[in-house]
Amino acid sequence: MISIREIFKNTENYIDKEIEICGWIKTNRGSKNFGFIELTDGTNFNSLQVVYGKELGNFSEIEKYTLSSSLIIKGKLVESPGANQSFELQAKEIKLIGAADNTYPLQKKRHTMEYLRTVSHLRPRTNTFNAVFRVRSLIAYAIHKFFQERGFVYFHAPIITASDAEGAGEMFQVTTLPLEDIPKNDEGKVDYKKDFFGKETNLTVSGQLEDEAFALAFGNVYTFGPTFRAENSNTPRHAAEFWMIEPEMAFADLNVNMDVAEAMLKYIIRYVLENAKEEMKFFNKFIDKDLLARLDNVVSNEFERITYTQAIEILEKANKDFKFPVKWGIDLQTEHERYITEEVFKKPVFVTNYPKEIKAFYMTENDDKKTVAAMDLLVPGVGEIIGGSQREHRIDILEKKMKDLNMNMDEYDWYLDLRRFGTCIHSGYGLGFERAVMYITGMKNIRDVIPFPRTVGNANY
Amino acid sequence: MISIREIFKNTENYIDKEIEICGWIKTNRGSKNFGFIELTDGTNFNSLQVVYGKELGNFSEIEKYTLSSSLIIKGKLVESPGANQSFELQAKEIKLIGAADNTYPLQKKRHTMEYLRTVSHLRPRTNTFNAVFRVRSLIAYAIHKFFQERGFVYFHAPIITASDAEGAGEMFQVTTLPLEDIPKNDEGKVDYKKDFFGKETNLTVSGQLEDEAFALAFGNVYTFGPTFRAENSNTPRHAAEFWMIEPEMAFADLNVNMDVAEAMLKYIIRYVLENAKEEMKFFNKFIDKDLLARLDNVVSNEFERITYTQAIEILEKANKDFKFPVKWGIDLQTEHERYITEEVFKKPVFVTNYPKEIKAFYMTENDDKKTVAAMDLLVPGVGEIIGGSQREHRIDILEKKMKDLNMNMDEYDWYLDLRRFGTCIHSGYGLGFERAVMYITGMKNIRDVIPFPRTVGNANY
Fold first, then answer.
1. B382-425, pLDDT tens digit by residue?
2. At the topology level of CATH, where does A125-169+205-448 sit?
3. Chain B residues whose beta carbon lies within 8 Å of the beta carbon of residue A41
4. Nearest Cα residue in chain A from B412
5. Nearest CA to B278 among B51, B65, B40?
6. What are the phi and psi torsion angles at B173 (to 5°)?
7. Contact of B85 with B91, CB cutoff 8 Å
8. CA-CA distances (angstroms) from residue A448 to A12, A140, B207?
9. How far is it, in rounded angstroms, from Cα A267 to Cα A295?
10. Which of residues 119-148 of A touch B (CB under 8 A)?
């Protein structure tokens, strides 16, 4: 059995040879004496044209085989006179394996994205989703390849956790207590001693803090795993379950952090452009006509680097009516971010050194005592795609901050240990994996880049 | 800044050059006029020897720098006259970045594995755990590399799920309902309409069913993600949170399934042997003296393939006192599995075609109607490491089985769709990632191959 991918890749090895292939019908057009089947086996974006003629004993049955039926076909691969493809398979034998009757939900017509979400188990059989999920897979691999080639250690942060990386954020609780009859203790509170872990646990919102522990042992590490937000936000950019990549580097300052983020993003895009040519052409044609130009712009330009203060100055001078007024101290909104990256610089822009009030406790306080060594990467078409920082490595400053925020110091004692025993400058960032997939495919809804998306009210499959 | 890994790898590029390195002290021995620091930056299993002399202004301070303090060192890499390493760094400048005082929990002495688990944030700084987690990372990458090179699509199965892949198994519940005050409906039952997803949800125990949907769209796919079991089993081989690899292949029967499993396991082991030579030597010396011989045996032999019925015959004839009596129909116990793989065949053995009563509903029923097309891979030293099957692709047989098991047919309707619309023979297997890491490192407790393990009563960090 030869895959259609292999036939397209090494066609010369198979021309004029008898081969056996298998797959599913994408189209089937019969006429009086012969017919054409477009067959896909899922391995290749383009399907293979199969020609069958009257000489086949089951010709009249083949003609009736319906969309998505599975077949095994023996035949000879020959050069094709006209048509789109330069080769086709002349069938000698076509065997029906599994029929698909006319209740098959994806009949040959355009379906809305909304409808396709209701059949998430079948939508990867469509061109769009076949392309999306293959590219998703390639991006994931490119990320591993990038970090492994640079000696980073891949690290699995815990999914179930008793701590909360951001000191906030809505979380899913994980429990084995019976909800019908929650055990209570003498004080009338939930008796977590009876829960599986003996305490209240949640699904992780970030692996960063644990990541730091590993960076201070291995130098360079990265996580790539699922993270969760129980936010009741029904937007095209939010899912309750999504994957995140979080590299963390010891003895690396904010500049190194930006260097790595820039190199990584370029590496991923190049990898996809090289390894999913047909898919990317398809996206550019049917999903987003500016896609390839935009990605090309990203890989071929050095990213801009400006401070938050410079960004505010630019926005204040802008002859533009922003919905959210601009003033030093505000958190940049998507409209601001997109103006900077799309209209001012027309390429990716790192914005650094944000006001400390709008950023997380673990970021390094700058000498001005007003800003922290944070960086956000803004890209045309999206806005923020990466967020990172140099971490506060000075225990006195970190402890004071945590106390000011009323954080539970006992719970974070291990995190402070990292500053007690051989602390050093270290930095890292987070890339939302699905954001990256959306960016590279041009898909506009996060539900359409996740195999089985989880959002408010939806955990089907 | 040059990494110690780079210095070891391309030593000739740096000999007699001035370089700057950073890292943490592993040992520091001063004498009257000079001293030696073993420095690690985490990137390399072996540390770099740094020699410092009286000519350094802060000589008397350097002598006092303690274990795990972080330093930045400038110096010249020179060939070393005697000693273990053929090169060392002659320090020109040693700068203390972060001291580690004498409360550092990992002072220079042997610590028990149990103690080290209590400092999971620091244990990767020890030789053993540095080696374990680097090898864990390499195994993960080797798995991706193996499948990607063969065109498999990496697929993220959902973590939060409303279905239960095995029709059994203890699961963690995921909820946003307030446990202190669970909302009830008119019937006095938990009102899941108020929960985040509008229904009862759990953490996945396997991505296999969703995996099948993707295999029937892409041909060859694999998952690699976390799975969960809320089993109250406090053993060295069970964790509540662990990672699993589940490849799934369309148009592939049980033989192809075994071919891929065998090729994958050999590929991973070879990759680690090539890319973690020092670590593997270390394990062989300090953790398990038979390790390298055992792994070499695995990569250099064709795996044996026998049926369950043959396995039972072998066990019945064995001159051996098994704790669990042998009889056709029993589930093989570890003692049986290890006898077959260690004493009879002395190499990995696939056992196929198990009695249907002891295997899952989704496995293909064989023509004898007594057995199913299942396969388990048994390896010396462990027993079962991989379990898989050819999936039941015939809707009538599958439906009957599910009904006999009183499964909720509505919930699995989408799974039956895969048999309704172009069904085909397909197969897959599951590899417990941590089991693989234990097997390849020789580590005996699953808690010692997971960065921050989750087990009954333990969700620290």
1. 889 999 999 999 999 999 999 999 998 998 999 999 999 999 99
2. BirA Bifunctional Protein; domain 2 (3.30.930)
3. 219, 250-251
4. A461
5. B40
6. -85, 145
7. no
8. 37, 16, 19
9. 11
10. 119-122, 124-125, 129-130, 133-134, 136-137, 140-141, 144, 148
Residue ranges of chain A that CATH labels 2.40.50.140: 4-98
Percent of chain A with pLDDT over 70: 98
Q: Chain A within 8 Å of B397 (Cβ-Cβ)? A: no
What DSSP element (H or E) covers B419?
helix B413-420
Q: Which helix (H) or strand (E) holds B210?
A: helix B208-218
Min Cα distance B294 → chain A (Å) is 26
Distance CA B375, CA B388 (A): 5
As to burial, measured by CB atoms within 10 angstroms (0-12 exposed, 13-18 middle, 19+ buried), residue B21 is: buried
- Residue spans in chain A of domains classed CATH 3.30.930.10: 125-169+205-448
pLDDT of residue A110: 85
Mutate to test the interface with A, among B26, B179, B238 (most CBs of A within 10 A): B179
pLDDT digits (tens, 9 = 90+) for A319-368: 899 999 999 999 999 999 999 999 999 999 999 999 999 999 999 999 99
Interface test with A, best of B452, B455, B456 (most A CBs within 10 A): B452
The answer to whether A362 and A167 have CB atoms below 8 angstroms apart is no
Q: Cα-flanking dihedrals φ and ψ of residue A395, to 5°?
A: -65, -35
Q: Is A4-98 a domain of CATH 2.40.50.200? A: no
Single-letter code of the amino acid located at B397: I
Cα(A338)–Cα(A331) distance, integer angstroms = 14
Partner-chain contact A422 B134, CB within 8 Å: no
Q: And the tokens for A38?
A: 């477009």
For chain A, say whether B424 makes contact (Cβ under 8 Å): yes
* H or E element, residue A157: none
Question: For residues A16 and A24, what is the distance between their CA atoms, to the nearest angstrom?
Answer: 23
What confidence score (pLDDT) does residue A164 get?
Answer: 59
Contact B153 A134 (CB under 8 A): yes
Rg (CA), chain A: 27
Residue type, A15: I
The residues near A28 (Cβ < 8 Å, ≥ 6 apart) are A35, A36, A37, A38, A62, A63, A65, A66, A67
| Chain B residues in contact with A425 (beta carbon < 8 A) | 97
* Lowest mean pLDDT, pick from A213-217, A303-307, A370-374, A402-406: A402-406
B278 near A CB under 8 A: no
> Span B236-246, mean pLDDT?
96
Q: Is the CA virtual torsion B410, B416, B421, B427 positive or negative?
A: positive
What the block records as the tokens of A332 is 């940049």
> What residue of A is the nearest CA neighbor of B165?
A461
**Could you tell me the pTM of the whole model?**
0.97
Distance CA B159, CA B169 (A): 15
Chain A stretch 300-339, residues whose beta carbon is closer than 8 A to a beta carbon of chain B: none
Q: Which helix (H) or strand (E) holds B53?
A: strand B48-53
- What pLDDT, on the 0 to 100 scale, is given for residue B164? 59
Q: Is B460 on the interface with A (CB under 8 A)?
A: yes
Identify the bridge partners of residue B388 per DSSP, sorted by sequence position: B375, B429
* Check: complex ipTM more than 0.90: yes
Which chain A residues are within 8 Å of B246, Cβ to Cβ? none
Question: Using CA atoms, how far apart are residues A456 and A235, in angstroms rounded to an integer?
Answer: 10
Q: Looking at beta carbons, which residues of chain A come within 8 Å of B418?
A: 121
The whole-number pLDDT of residue B381 equals 85
